[in-house]
Design a protein that fits this description.
alpha+beta; OB fold (Dihydrolipoamide Acetyltransferase, E2P); 163 residues
């Protein structure tokens, strides 16, 4: 009888445990799936998607990508504001739109601009107009997905989008 009971637990219990396993992705995998669906739903057109990335010591504006393109392929840009001021500068609230997502109308000029704090040359994006897409968009940086990663990001570290 005891042998039969152990056999029952040995064979049936694992089935119950496996039946309870969830097959939906979690954490970063779920975020990647959600972002891939979001990219696929973006309407192609003559515009760009921008994510404001404000760091007080740096002069770059943020990351810019084409519709349907993942953030991991975006470019950190310097904004040319001769035709249109950046949204935060227009309101005289510098950096207040950090992490906002925008639909940007404009173009890459082909020029490169030196940013002294990072000692890096970035592409220039000429802004003509913009629309706010979201003031609370989904995370694209590893620091936004993990508290540990966020604690490791200093004010001088420039993050790259992961999604």
């Amino acid at each position: 009888m005891m042998k039969r009971t152990f056999w029952l637990f040995g064979m049936v219990l694992p089935l119950f445990l496996l039946a309870g396993c969830e097959t939906t992705p979690s954490g970063i995998q779920a975020a990647k799936v959600a972002m891939a669906q979001k990219y696929a739903a973006e309407t192609p057109g003559d515009y760009f998607i921008g994510r404001r990335y404000y760091k007080p010591d740096f002069k770059f504006w943020g990351y810019v990508r084409r519709p349907g393109q993942p953030w991991s392929e975006s470019q950190l840009v310097m904004l040319n504001e001769k035709q249109k001021l950046a949204p935060d500068r227009e309101r005289l609230e510098f950096g207040s739109d950090n992490n906002y997502e925008y639909k940007l109308y404009g173009y890459f000029s082909g020029d490169k601009v030196y940013e002294p704090a990072s000692n890096t040359i970035y592409p220039e994006f000429v802004l003509k107009s913009y629309e706010v897409i979201s003031t609370n968009p989904p995370p694209i940086f590893s620091s936004q997905l993990s508290g540990r990663a966020q604690a490791e990001v200093s004010r001088y570290q420039i993050e790259k989008p992961q999604l």
